Amino acid sequence: MSIRFCSLASGSSGNCQYIETEKIRILVDAGLSGKRIQQALESIQVDPKTINGILVTHEHSDHVKGVGILSRRFNLPIYVNTNTWESMRNSMGKVKEENIKTFTTGDHFEIADLGIESFKIHHDASDPVGYCINHKSTKISLLTDTGHVDEEIKKKIKKSNLLLLESNHNPEMVRVGRYPWPLKKRILGDFGHISNEVAGETITDVYTYDMKVILLAHLSQENNFPELAYKTVSDIMTQSGIDIKKDVKLDMTYRSKPSKVYTL
């Protein structure tokens, strides 16, 4: 069987991604209430009781709000690096010790028929990571919540078949917007979030013909619009010779509803 992917929610109000093979169903992050995640799963015809585990990228509440709840409700293991677990454990409520599966950033490990590789990203959290998830010959890469994209990250996400990539903001909207200056500085800094322009440039740097789907994620509600993110990124890709109608599918994720379900 192939691998299926759906972004159940993406944005500062909550993040949760779904990945399925014939042997495993996992979430990457669970940053909404348990009820909302269950409703999102049911909306794509997935029984929440069939989820097998949760991978965590970092401890911010928009990524972990529902982790403890779902772990208790469905007896789910939580896969998380040691530093992140230490930063989030006090807000998780009681979690069974045997369900805490810690690793070190950079480790490779397996969950059923998925090969998981974590990689270091740049965000104001204790030890934030992105993930490359491999199933047979298919590779899915997830990269959000990073203030910049260095060459090591680009190496990790290259040759992805599906790339979920942050396209958080338009820098000018941040500068002239109503946020206080310290928050603006955080967003625009090296440990904040990447802009639409950086997302487009990152795609052109890592694009190969293996890439079939690119999903723009974690859009700011205050400092971005889906249409603006799409146009900015697609213009940069087109200028570099990538045909978004023939070479690759460029699509969006959403704050309050699931994306399309992609089968690879």
Question: What would the keywords be for this entry?
Answer:
264 residues, Metallo-beta-lactamase, Chain A, 14 strands, single chain, alpha/beta, 7-stranded mixed β-sheet
What does this structure look like?
Helix 8 runs parallel beside helix 9 (226-239). The protein contains nine helices and 14 strands. The protein is 28% helix and 25% strand. It is α/β, with parallel strands linked by helices. The strands form two sheets. It has a seven-stranded mixed sheet with strand order 6-5-4-3-2-1-14. Helix 5 links the parallel strand 10 and strand 11. The model has no long low-confidence stretch (mean pLDDT 97). The chain has one domain: Metallo-beta-lactamase, Chain A (4-Layer Sandwich), CATH 3.60.15.10.
Helix-and-strand structural type = alpha/beta
Looking at CATH, which topology would you report?
A: Metallo-beta-lactamase, Chain A
Mean pLDDT: 97
CATH homologous superfamily caption: Ribonuclease Z/Hydroxyacylglutathione hydrolase-like
